[in-house]
Structures are given as structure tokens and as C-alpha cells.
């Protein structure tokens, strides 16, 4: 019988220790005085649900931002390809101009 009483005493001490730790982790609000085990566990459950909701929203936002990043990356790549085309067209035009400038230079000297 005394062994059983000692084990029960240790179990209750362990339970009190765990509840004290939980009290330190759960925001208790303005009424941070004495709480029953039930009220503490209820607040802990609500706090966990709130954290899970925040995590879901954060993950959703991360997914949205990743989609936006991929979209912007595709636009950037597309603009890079267009720039290469524009640069190549511009260099073609400048070489045509320089060829025509060379062809016209003797005329300038004849005036």
C-alpha cells in the first residue's frame, strides 16, 4: 500500500510539473492567476488551433509567393529573349547603316 501511495505521489508531482511547463508555454491573457487543469488544457488546445491556422495561412502565402516568383521568372526570361532579338536586330541595322555610310562617303567628297 505504501508503495502505491508513493507512486501516486510521484505521478501527481510529475503532472504538476508538466502543467507548470504548459502554463509557461500557453498565453493565459489578463487572467494569469490560478487556473484549473481544465481551463489550462482548454487554453492550450485553443492556442494550438490558432498556431495551426497561422501555419496553414503561412504555407498558403508561401505557395502564392512561389507561384508569383515562377511567373515573374518566366517574364524575365521572356524579356531576356526579346532583348537578345532586339540587340541582334539593332546590330544588324547598325552594320547596314555603316555599309551605306561607307558607300555614300565618296559622294560627300565629290561635292
What does the secondary structure layout of this molecule look like, with pairings?
Layout: H1 2-25, H2 37-110
Helix pairs in contact: 1-2
Task: Give an account of the 3D structure.
The chain has 111 residues and is mainly α. The longest helix has 74 residues, at 37-110. The protein has helices spanning 2-25, 37-110.
Short account of what is shown:
With 111 residues, the protein is mostly helical. It contains two helices and no strands. It has a domain of 70 residues.
Give the beta-strand count: 0
The H-and-E topology, N to C, reads as HH
Shape: rod-shaped
- Beta-strand portion reads under 5%
Instruction: Please summarize the sheet with the most strands.
Output: none
Alpha carbon gyration radius? 38 Å
Distance between the termini: 128 Å
Helix fraction, binned, reads over 70%
What's the average pLDDT?
A: 83
Number of helices: 2
State the low-pLDDT regions, or none.
none
Secondary structure category: mainly alpha
Task: Please tag this protein with its features.
HLH_DNA-bd_sf, single chain, rod-shaped, transcription, about 110 residues, protein dimerization activity, mainly alpha, about 90% helix
Amino acid at each position: 500500500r505504501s508503495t502505491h501511495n508513493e507512486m501516486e505521489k510521484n505521478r501527481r508531482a510529475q503532472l504538476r510539473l508538466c502543467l507548470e511547463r504548459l502554463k509557461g508555454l500557453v498565453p493565459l491573457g489578463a487572467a494569469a492567476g490560478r487556473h484549473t487543469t481544465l481551463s489550462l488544457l482548454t487554453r492550450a488546445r485553443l492556442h494550438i488551433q490558432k498556431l495551426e491556422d497561422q501555419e496553414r495561412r503561412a504555407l498558403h502565402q508561401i505557395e502564392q509567393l512561389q507561384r508569383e516568383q515562377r511567373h515573374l521568372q518566366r517574364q524575365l526570361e521572356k524579356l531576356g529573349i526579346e532583348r537578345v532579338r532586339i540587340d541582334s536586330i539593332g546590330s544588324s541595322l547598325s552594320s547596314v547603316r555603316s555599309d551605306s555610310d561607307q558607300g555614300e562617303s565618296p559622294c560627300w567628297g565629290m561635292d
